[in-house]
Amino acid sequence: MRIEIDLSGLRCPLPVLRVKKALNEIAAGGELRVFASDPEAKNDIPSFLKQAGHTLHDISAADGGHYFLIQKK
């Protein structure tokens, strides 16, 4: 299962909180693809994922932000 969320326009701490909420809604092993426009998300989301034990498979720059591909532990 893969869920995609667009966090355009949200500023810290909302991107991390929305990622956390979305991860709570999917089963272990599920994937979450996130777009975030907040420049701080490039640091904040990976830090949260490391702390929570989830896997960050990829971060890619996009026009106006970054995409994150996450797998729930």
UniProtKB/TrEMBL annotation:
Gene3D superfamilies in alphabetical order: TusA-like domain
CDD domains given in the database record: SirA_YedF_YeeD
PROSITE patterns per the UniProt record, alphabetical: UPF0033 (PS01148)
Protein name: Sulfurtransferase TusA family protein
Residues covered by the UPF0033 domain: 5-29
Family recorded in the similarity comment: Belongs to the sulfur carrier protein TusA family.
Organismal lineage: Bacteria, Pseudomonadati, Pseudomonadota, Gammaproteobacteria, Candidatus Tethybacterales
SUPFAM superfamilies: SirA-like
